[in-house]
User: What shape does this take?
Amino acid sequence: MTGDGPAEEVLTALADPTRRRILDLLAARGEATATLLAAELPVTRQGVVKHLAALDRAGLVAGQRRGREVRYRVRPERLSSTARWMEQVAAQWDARLSAIKRIAEGDA
Amino acid sequence: MGSEDRIEREITIAAPVERVWAVLTEPEHVGKWFGQGTPARIDLRPGGVMRLDHAQYGKFPTRIEKVDPPHYFAYRWASAYPGQQATEDNSTLVEFTLTPDGDGTRLYLVESGFATLVIPEETRATASYESHSGGWTDVLAHVREHAERLTT
Assistant: This one.
């Protein structure tokens, strides 16, 4: 169930409610600056910058400098692989339950 | 929590509940259906450890939560963290419910708690945590929704 699972750094990044909120806002807007995000969150701009750095390290957002500001957007790849992991977890249960059935019914 | 917080499955097995219970809780059987590992070590009591061995992904010391033979068996496992003992904070809850169905058994499985798989120390103490935020599975759902909207 692990293997291609979300790296620990992805889960840790997603564990924080403010960072989840930031991802949500970025997904809704396409892109945003730290200043803009801070205006919508109960966090200082400095706090938002720290959270963005954590999300960046986990590969969940990317920043691009435009003049004096950095605009951030969601990088969906790691989130997609995390979603795929959930689907794999379900598929593995299907396989396990089939094995349980085979063993209980005496065919294994 | 959204529906993505849990996985639910139900199958019918042509064997009595006692037999299915044995397959779920006895080491030599568990070793066969969980991964391709060696027989599991199982201390079958609440608080006891069932050591699941997945040959490919590693060993998972699960924590048994409830044992009600032959009807209900629940344990926590830290599926995202091979080698780590399952606790409230790093694991999901696996529940098996066995119901007699004629000569056979209906086996109902739930694995839940994905949304709160990791809760950092600093937020655990905050009372607002539960009320104000969905878990990461909600984020996945939202982001996927937006991504799909962008590509269509």
User: Anything to note?
Assistant: Chain A has one domain: 6-107. The CA atoms of residues 33 and 78 of chain A lie 21 Å apart. The beta strands of chain A are 32-33, 61-66, 69-74. The helical segments of chain A are 8-15, 17-29, 34-40, 45-57, 76-104.
